[in-house]
Amino acid sequence: MADAEYLNNHFLIAMPGLADPNFFHTVTYICEHDADGAMGIVINRPLDLHLADILTHMDIQATPATAGLPIFQGGPVQPERGFVLHTPQGSWEATLQVSTDIGLTASQDVLAAIAAGQGPQRFLIALGYAGWGAGQLERELSDNAWLSGPATAEVLFDMPVEKRWAAAAALLGVDLNLMSGDAGHA
């Protein structure tokens, strides 16, 4: 694939027929995609955890305003590892700049700042990530398991979680409710 064909800063939208329980009806924000594979964070699977739950293990105190912030299941790979998708305010220890508007940080300093109410303005905190080996995502796309399209910060950060799957597809002009779960090949 040419660099322009890689899906960095795109949504990967599970097709209705994708039955894998890890990805059924998910939207994954692709943070890194190149010849070696792809990595992304699922943005519409909240866990039954809140920021205060994970901060207690790190000896970080959350404020009352931040303690109840939701934690998402970012994917099935390394579910014990935390990631924060965020707008670019601040300078954090381990940040991958995905686009001019979005960064992915995997260091505790951003969590401490969020807990204190001093973090980025917009963010999503996840445990785990979704990963694909070289050529795997391309095969899944050709098998019609996914739709892909440019990501927006509005769907990523502002949209109610239960509406993100349909909203991400709507950015492409697709109504997932009208799609069959069966793949067709000519």
What is shown here, in short?
The protein is of the alpha+beta class. The protein is built from five helices and ten strands. It is 18% helix and 32% strand.
List the helices and strands and how they pair.
Elements: E1 10-14, E2 27-34, E3 37-42, E4 46-50, H1 51-55, E5 70-73, E6 77-86, E7 95-97, E8 103-105, H2 108-115, E9 123-133, H3 136-142, E10 146-150, H4 153-158, H5 164-170
Parallel strand pairs: 5-9
Antiparallel strand pairs: 1-2, 1-10, 2-3, 3-9, 4-5, 6-8, 6-9, 7-8
Structure, described:
With 186 residues, this protein is α+β, with helices and mostly antiparallel strands. The protein has a single domain (3-178), classed as VC0467-like. The chain has five helices and ten strands, in the order ββββαββββαβαβαα. It has helices spanning 51-55, 108-115, 136-142, 153-158, 164-170; strands spanning 10-14, 27-34, 37-42, 46-50, 70-73, 77-86, 95-97, 103-105, 123-133, 146-150. Strands 1, 2, 3, 4, 5, 6, 7, 8, 9 and 10 form a ten-stranded mixed β-sheet that branches. The longest helix has 8 residues, at 108-115. The protein is globular. The two termini are 22 Å apart. The model has no long low-confidence stretch (mean pLDDT 91).
CATH class label:
Alpha Beta
Tell me how many strands there are: 10
Using the alpha-carbon principal axes, give the shape.
globular
Radius of gyration: 16 Å
Which fold name corresponds to the CATH topology?
VC0467-like
Intertermini distance:
22 Å
